[in-house]
Amino acid sequence: MKNYPGKIFTKLTCLLIAFTLFCTGKAFCSYAYVVNANSNTVSIIDTNNPLGPLTTVSVGNSPQAIAISGTGAYVANNVDGTVSIINTESPLGPITTVTVGTNPVAIAISGTGAYVANNFDGTVSIINTESPLSAVMTVTVGMNPQAIAISGTGAYVVNSASDTVSIIDTQSPSSPVTTVTVGSFPQAIAISGTGAYVVNTGSGTVSIIDTGSPLSPLTTVTVGNFPQAIAISGTGAYVANFFDVTVSIINTESPLSAVTTVTVGAGPSAIAISGTGAYVTNYFNGTLSIINTENPLGPVTTVTVGTNPFGIAISGTGAYVVNNSSDTVSIINTESPLTPVTTVTVGTNPVGIAIYDTPPPPPPYLHPRQFQRGPWNR
């Protein structure tokens, strides 16, 4: 039979091309990992087919937070003091379990380090992502570390009970920790440029640390009542004020200038920004407020979601809202937010979400000579 190698290559090529279309024609594959605190699971939603079957992975006791890097989804399990590592390429495969400190509540990843804030023992556990079962490094920080963010060579740990931020040198984590005093009961942090913005829930302020000179005097900005969360985009730092029904917008280029205040729903609890939209979850009235970042004092778009929305993540044209008391995720089309919301049922008491985006495999390389040997070349 003539051209047999060419025919085999043609069939093989078709199989490879079919494999690359697994993402349903999207530019990338995307999965939303939802942490379910009371069912001790992670629900994985295929964002290209959100109403399709969920993948459910069992993790440790009372998972509270998740961060994804490379092929690992790292889940902090609050009650049993462990981190479960899910292989994102094979999520139903064996789970790697790493023992960390007491009551881990937050996690951030940079380089080869997964930094886990252990709330009850005032430490940060550092897992080597290249060798997670090797010895875990432990760094002492302040009391009740609550949140963590990493920028450059600094891991900034928010210590809620000691009103401080501990800065760990990620290149030399065993070296002395830098401690910065901030406002009362700090709860959240976001970093942009040379500014680390720390949300102080107890004092209704944001402390701005100069990351280039962290021990220099802080800039302190007054925001609303009981600020809970922060997100930064462009020249705006957006602070959700839980008891004020508002979002305070700080100009990052001129933080001591007048703060812009926008009214949103009741109990703004989380915030994420994508494109020209700042998406704010309102815990008490089950809505999502969308602020136009180009015209923040213009009309706010309100979308009804589930009961007690608690967290949010955005990928592509989807805003994924975790509804804590209805055990669902609401998916809002960011290009057309007033179209019907897609609702996906997940595990019990979802408390966190992270999205894993991966490009599909590249199409197979077709050498010109392989084309020439195809069945059409007699």
Average pLDDT number? 90
Secondary structural class: mainly beta
Share of helix among residues? under 10%
From the structure provided, what is the oligomeric state, counting identical versus distinct chains? single chain
How many strand units?
A: 32
Q: Give the CA-CA distance, first to last residue.
A: 11 Å
- Could you describe the largest sheet, including whether it forms a barrel? 4 strands, antiparallel
Using only C-alpha atoms, the radius of gyration works out to 23 Å
Number of helices: 2
Uncertain stretches of 5 or more adjacent residues: 1-26, 368-378
Strand content: over 45%
What's this model, at a glance?
With 378 residues, this protein is mainly beta. The chain has two helices and 32 strands. The chain is 6% helix and 50% strand.
What does this molecule look like?
The protein is mostly beta strands and 378 residues long. The protein is 6% helix and 50% strand. The strands form eight sheets. It has a four-stranded antiparallel beta sheet, with no helix packed on it. The protein has a four-stranded antiparallel beta sheet with strand order 4-5-6-7, with no helix packed on it. Strands 8-9-10-11 form a four-stranded antiparallel beta sheet, with no helix packed on it.
